Amino acid sequence: MRAQLNFKYFFLFYVFFSCAPVFADAVLTVPPGFKIERIATVPKARSMVWGEQETLFVSTQFAGKIYAVTNIFSTKPLVQIVAEGLRISNGIAFYDGDLYVAEATRIIVYRDIEARLEKPGVPEVIIDNLPAEKLHSWKYLAFGPDKKLYVSIGAPCNICEVTNSGMIARMNPDGTDFEAYARGIRNSVGFAWHPLTAELWFTDNNRDLLGDDKPLDELNKADRPGLHFGFPFCHGAELVEPDADLAALGSCNESVGPVQELGPHVAPLGIAFYTGMMFPQSYKKQVFIAEHGSWNRSEKIGYRISLVRLDKAGQSSLSYEPFAEGWLQDGKVSGRPVDLLVAPDGSLLVSEDKHGAIYRISYTAGSIESE
Question: Measured between alpha carbons, how far is 162 from 156 in angstroms, rounded to an integer?
């Protein structure tokens, strides 16, 4: 019965956003001196990663396709399909010339991909036994500073006890030495490493069906392996799970709380530390978050890029504020930001999966402060 309910929950979620009315592009707003513009169309654009030759690779999740975009900053970027027929291919990563793709149950790799964009060939399977229940079966993928491949494995439910899921795991590039790095994570679809401390930071989508205003979604950090972040017994900083059996599995005091609580049901996905040279000094090493937007709230929120400002040591949050807005206007949704990526020129790219767009945020006003 639980599996049937989880599938129904997942199916209604997917149908709602796949069949929702399409609204015209909204007027997007960014702080003074910044500019946001749509620079490419990639249907159902999700995760993004750069190749060594500045090819932008873009995943599509349910469409099962991977795109390569070349000459992204020209007036006519070339968008081509490099892989298709994949199963829930959300996560992608690039390492040593190769493109890694996370499907529902496996991770595959296309070797020497930028030399084979026209004919990538048959991918190599490096791991093929990942947990993949219907709900939260899409995975995020990235290489850490330790040259390990990290993958998120979401909980197969809205709220339930988990064993081999609800985690971020890591492995060698060839799939060996697979291990859980962090547990107690309901559904992380975005993580990155702090440029100074090399700590893993990640977003987490908290449980649904507790009302409009709770629980709050999360921005977390794991400064070492083996930490537990509270799911399913604790949500946000201190909200105890109302199901007594699940609450008995642990306590908020025994788990790691978020660095920053985000809005309730804003659905935080991709994050990026700004490491470029284009933005003003005050934005460097700060955290940008793509908020995909609420689906189960009576009044929609999210659908924006938010900014979490950190202290100089990169340890604590100083503020949580909007940065780019306009995809939600008068309750109508014209776009759903998914992933963020700092470009080689210092601009910030945003993927959006409702209309299938890649946006570029640039800064032009004034001079850049020195380090």
Answer: 8
Q: 4 CB contacts (<8 Å, ≥6 apart)?
A: none
Paired strand residues for 292: none
Q: How is residue 345 written in tokens?
A: 């020129």
Residue 46: which of 126, 6, 103, 113 has the closest Cα? 103
Q: 347 is written with which tokens?
A: 């601009």
Smallest Cα–Cα separation from 266: which of 221, 222, 330, 320?
A: 320
**Complete DSSP assignment for 50-68:** E-TTSPEEEE-BTT--EEE
Segment holding 112, helix H or strand E: none
Please list the alpha-helical segments (H only) found in the chain. 2-18, 244-247
Among the listed residues 262, 265, 270, 266, the one whose alpha carbon sits nearest the alpha carbon of residue 348 = 270
Helix (H) or strand (E) holding 103: none
As a whole number of angstroms, the distance between CA 188 and CA 192 comes to 11
C-beta neighbour count of 10 within 10 angstroms:
18
For tokens 């513009």, name the residue: 37
| Greatest extent of the chain over all pairs of C-alpha atoms, in Å | 61
CATH class in words for 33-363 = mainly beta
pLDDT values of the chain reduced to their tens digit, one per residue, 371 residues:
444 445 444 444 444 444 443 434 569 999 999 999 999 999 999 999 999 999 999 999 999 999 999 999 999 999 999 999 999 999 999 999 999 999 999 999 999 999 999 999 999 999 999 998 779 999 999 999 999 999 999 999 999 999 999 999 999 999 999 999 999 999 999 999 999 999 999 999 999 999 999 999 999 999 999 999 999 999 999 999 999 999 999 999 999 999 999 999 999 999 999 999 999 999 999 999 999 999 989 999 999 999 999 999 899 999 999 999 999 999 999 999 999 999 999 999 999 999 999 999 999 975 444 33
In a 3-state reduction of DSSP, which class is residue 292?
coil
Q: What are the phi and psi torsion angles at 306 (to 5°)? A: -105, 165
Cα–Cα distance, 219 to 290 (Å, whole number): 12
Of 251, 254, 292, 253, the C-alpha closest to 271 is 292
Is 245 strand, coil or helix? helix
What are 167's strand-pairing partners? 153, 183
